[in-house]
Specification:
Oligomer: single chain
Distance between the termini: 39 Å
Number of strands: 2
Low-confidence stretches: 1-26, 460-482
Order of helices and strands: HHEHHHHHHHHHEHHHHHHHHH
Helix content: 55-70%
Structural class: mainly alpha
Radius of gyration: 22 Å
Shape: globular
Number of helices: 20
Strand order of the largest sheet: 1-2
Mean pLDDT: 79
Largest sheet: 2 strands, antiparallel
Strand content: under 5%
Amino acid sequence: MAATPRFRNDASAAPDPDGEPVTAPSDRNHPVDETLPPFKMFTSGLQHVAAMYAGVVAPPMIVGPAVGLTAKETAFLMGASLFTAGIATLLQTLGFWRIGARLPFVNGVSFAGVTPMVAIGKDRGHDGIAVIFGAIIVASLLGFVLAPYFCKLVRFFPPVVTGTVITLIGISLLPVAFNWSQGGNATADDYGSTTNITMAAVTLVIVLALRKLLRGFLQQIAILLGLVVGTLIAIPVGITDFGAIKDADVVGFPTPFHFGAPQFEIAAIVSMCIVMLVCMTESTADMLALGKIVDRPADERTIEGGLRADTLGSAISPLFNGFMCSAFAQNIGLVAMTKVRSRFVVAAGGGILILLGLCPVAASVIALVPLPVLGGAGIVLFGSVAASGIQTLATAALEKGENALIVAAAVGVGLIPIAAPEFYHAFPKDLLVVLDSGISTGCVVAIVLNLAFNHLGRKPDTEAEPDSQGQDSVNASPVGVH
């Protein structure tokens, strides 16, 4: 599929079909819009799927049993989540009208909604799932309406804020990799065993060696190759489970409203609206992070399109028995590491996700990758995100004003859910949706402190000078620093 240029080459920013000026980058040959040969497109897209697969199927694996679904019904939810993640990813990468960030942006089931969904549907069976789906639909449609206003927050994300948030994204994801490296299931007998941790370490070394020794395209798919080699080594070790393939159907389709028509309860809707605001905040931060990594800074128009794709994908998802969708930060690390910036590569990954949702036996092949192997690769992926955040902070003039204090406080607060998971145990459960997300709390603290120290009470005679974010930050930001 050929890339359709969004922008004109001239700097006059001619109006788009809707009559509004286009202010995004004017380079129609940007690597983000590059199409690769079919084989490279497929393998690079498959690498994105491998990196996100566990994150997509984990929420339905938790929610299904909690609401009282059978193992077969839970497997159905997992397939539906893969299918709807593919739809949401295509909305983000290809887009239409004003929907889609048109960046190499992967969407999947949000973990932020797991706890509220379990609370809403616990032991209610099909009725519980129907109430969850109804709440997601309402919250998603509300988010779609709010997207043009929510995107205005981009002006409050100068490098001192974006760098802090990107760093927190990477740091917040690392415990996931550590958990996978130990086996993923804390109740299992072999959790944290020397076998699991050794396999994670071996995979990590393999990925690093492949990145060092290979060149060109093979270097770009080092993560995928590392997962394949790690899985092959894991077979004689005895930690590869082939049971999923034996029990999987060849063909399956997520029948619309398989669990019944959506039901609408006020309390459930309020809970999922809070989750949607959290997802929109994190997606905004992820788009800003990805925009810097691919050298196409995300402006208000891009973020508006991205949030609309998030919310529309989430609204469609319950139709096919899927949950709320949002950005997958681990794939940002993959883009940073491989330097493959094409959005069509990620669109290919979205197509693969749809096929996996329609072919459970194919999805089970991806599931063959043991979690310790995925954890070893995840350390590199998630660490790459944190490294990108540190690079952004290097442009934030930390030696000026109170910028270093902003970073210190925001990172400190953002690390609380990671370093002390029970820190907020006495707070109301509804607040935990926000407080248990280090990304959200750190982002809020960074924005508030940036406003307090760098905007409120600023003297008029300093406004003409480069502000405390540094002149480079103004040039790097698509909307400047307001």
